[in-house]
Amino acid sequence: MTSDSAGEQDIYDPLYLAGIEHFNVCDFFEAHETWEELWTEYRGPARRFYQGLIQAAVALHHFGNGNIRGARKVYLTSLNYLADYPAIYQGLDLENFRKQYGECFAEILDSEEEYPQIEIIPDLIPEIHLQPAAADA
């Protein structure tokens, strides 16, 4: 990930940033593992936020592997974890992320088949680019 701000490493947990790097190269399993390491020890207000990102990575991992039913279920769970956070949180434009994430999953959500055969569209996979630190203030 290219930093939008030279001071990001000082502001955000290194595991949060490492998870973003994995996420943005579509290594969703490693993003999940990295964020889970952060989430396991963390006991603050961002705990459910991190859990939502973990679930988003898992949903995208399932989608990429063709587990459409699992992807749909975890997608919906991830949105519940992220629902109570403001539009911008931990430098992430959550409003935009949720929009892109929803567009990526739209075909799955629209499908009425029990076992749909849907392939992920690479151009619709969301990326995480942090806002400048002042955006959180």
From TrEMBL:
Give the source's domain of life in one word: Bacteria
> What InterPro entries does this protein map onto?
DUF309, TTHA0068_sf
Tell me which SUPFAM superfamilies the record gives: TTHA0068-like
Q: What's the name of the protein? A: DUF309 domain-containing protein
| Organism name | Bythopirellula polymerisocia
Q: What taxonomic lineage is listed for the species of origin? A: Bacteria, Pseudomonadati, Planctomycetota, Planctomycetia, Pirellulales
